[in-house]
Amino acid sequence: MRPGIRAPDLRRKGLRARIVLGYAAGTLLVSIVLVCVTFLLARSYLLDQREASLTRQAFADANVLDSRLATAGTEVGDVLDELVPSGGADVVLHSGDSWYSSSLDVGARDVPGDLRELVSTEPAASAVVDTADGPRLIVGVTLPSADVEFYELAPLTELQQVLSTLAAVLGAGALAATAAGTAFGVWAGRRAVQPLEQVAGAATRIAGGELATRLPATDDPDLVGIVASFNSMVDALAARIERDARFVGDVSHELRSPLTTLVTSVEVLGARREELSPRGREALGMVEGELTRFRRTLDDLLQLARLDGAAVRESAQPVCLATLVRQVLADSDRPAELLTVPGDADTTVRGDKTSLERAVRNLLDNADRHAGGPSAVAVERRDGAVLVTVDDAGPGVAPGDRERVFERFARGPRAARRSLPGAGLGLAIVAETAARHGGAAWCADGPEGGARFTLSVPAVPS
Amino acid sequence: MALRLLVVEDDDHIRTALRWALEDEGYDVAEAGSGEEALQAVAVSAPDLMVVDLMLGAMDGVDVIRQVRRTLDLPIIVVSARADTSDIETALDAGADDYVTKPFAVKEITARLRALRRRVGPAAADHVDEVVLDRDPVAPLVLREARGTVHRGEEQLPLTLTEFRLLCELAAAPGRVFSRQALLERVWQHGFFGDERLVDVHVRRLRTKVERDPSAPRVVVTVRGLGYRLDLQ
Known about the structure:
The structure holds two protein chains of two kinds. By secondary structure, chain A is an alpha+beta fold. Chain A has three domains: 6-163, Beta-Lactamase (2-Layer Sandwich); 208-310, Helix Hairpins (Orthogonal Bundle); 312-458, Heat Shock Protein 90. Helix content of chain A is 55%, strand content 17%. By secondary structure, chain B is α/β, with parallel strands linked by helices. Chain B has two domains: 4-117, Rossmann fold (3-Layer(aba) Sandwich), CATH 3.40.50.2300; 122-230, Arc Repressor Mutant, subunit A (Orthogonal Bundle). In chain B, 39% of the residues lie in helices and 21% in strands. Chain B is built from eight helices and twelve strands. In chain B, helix 6 packs across helix 7 (180-188). Chain B is globular, with a radius of gyration of 18 Å. The N and C termini of chain B lie far apart (43 Å). The A-B interface holds A 249, 253, 256-265, 267-268, 271, 295, 298, 306, 311, 318, 323-324, 327, 331, 353-354, 357 and B 11, 13-14, 17-18, 20-21, 24, 81-82, 84, 102-107, 191-193, 225.
């Protein structure tokens, strides 16, 4: 075995598989040891019992023999015929130089030499021998008075049957214990992995924006630490996200007061346009234009801060996207014919009306900015989602830029020119709004050569 | 005669610029730089309209509105730096009629003020003079639209103009469900993207005045997911 190779193999199997394997191997090992010990103990006990009873019988039979032989003129062979040992045992004896046997199955060949030596010194001795018809227990005693070695041989087949039955029962028990151990391992593995799955689920929800998600408190001493540190990590994360969002909010808020003064003062100036010199009027126009742009950027920043704050779910309500798009088109003085709603599908989603409106408006503004306006707008329901597509007839977006355009402060190549308004936050807001609603936003080739921007939001099941 | 408008705002620059712009729009503008000044100005000159900033200093805009509402029914517009906070709801609860978010164009404020000043809604033009909303034998609830009054028995209820117009819109078609959207357009003249909190808060305030048990309203009923309905009792 090469542990350097086996170990990573096992690790690749995963925590649950390792726990199951561990329990299975452990129970198998323990049951094998128990089975072996039990079997050996039982075997030696049964053998001892058999030996003891055979020894008693041998002494009894030998005494009978002895007393008969004491009667003058009695032949060993005659006495042997009279002896009928119980339990199917046979008798072999050595008297003088001859061997006598009570049965044809056994004879001198079945008495081992070392047993004979033992018998010459001890009052009784025993051994297990293999005979022509199976193993037998042989017990020998000496009758020193008659110079006779008396051996009694008992068959062990019955004992063997008992032992093999015992072995089968014990083996089955070991297998059952291993199976139970494996099953317990599966259960324990599941139990061990369960907290990890909880953590994974919580992490997924947090990544989806549910920052209030925490792991439930536990009194399991092994998990208390993990739960506490996970929850404090999420606390820290949420606090940080909130701080960042608040910072953007605070900055924008601080900018709002001077901006309000500026906007209002410029309005007052605008009402007195006629009193200004031509150069003054031109400058006023520039200030008005830049102010509008400033306001929009600030609004965009605030909108992003709001989206980062993850408050969309709280204000979620059913919103019909077809109606919403129609309204945005009307509000921005675009022809209603731009919009097609195939099959008058139900285009209701759950969401925040204001931010969805903002996202749709940004898509239309984006087409204005980079492609001379949208050429077609569609709202359709497809695969459990409502798609808002905005086509344009502009130069399109290069495949390599299609992800980047949704990043914050990303601007198209033409936007390098000062005349284009917007700070490049519009599509980032679209992407962020889609994500907050559990949807997506993407960009592809339009059917007429321009670009097609799509906002997808999960539909309310109809 | 020009309408008298009180601007309550603690930022000097904004207040001054706002006064210029509103004077350009033809209002007779008075200024107040703090909550205390505002209450004094209200007591002395009784303005027709108020524009109130929410963050004022020691006494904030919500307190000012609450104080003014005790005695006067005049359109109040709140100016706030953030529209997504609960401040707006608190201010509406205290009695403000509408709000605008900074930075705003003055045209936005004047449009809101004009909407709030309309005495009679278009739906009410061909309306009968007296509608009994609740036929309680002891204290019936009676709306007299032309006179601009609502009585519970002998007592005249102190509805604000906005609450009164909300009630008139609902009473124009008893039993019909009005969506929040529709009410926003009719009472406040907001577009599709107006803030529906306005309707909810005003309905809540209206109920505390016209219902016998505001926690179990029977006259102005909520229709879940659709809007509100007025039931004649």
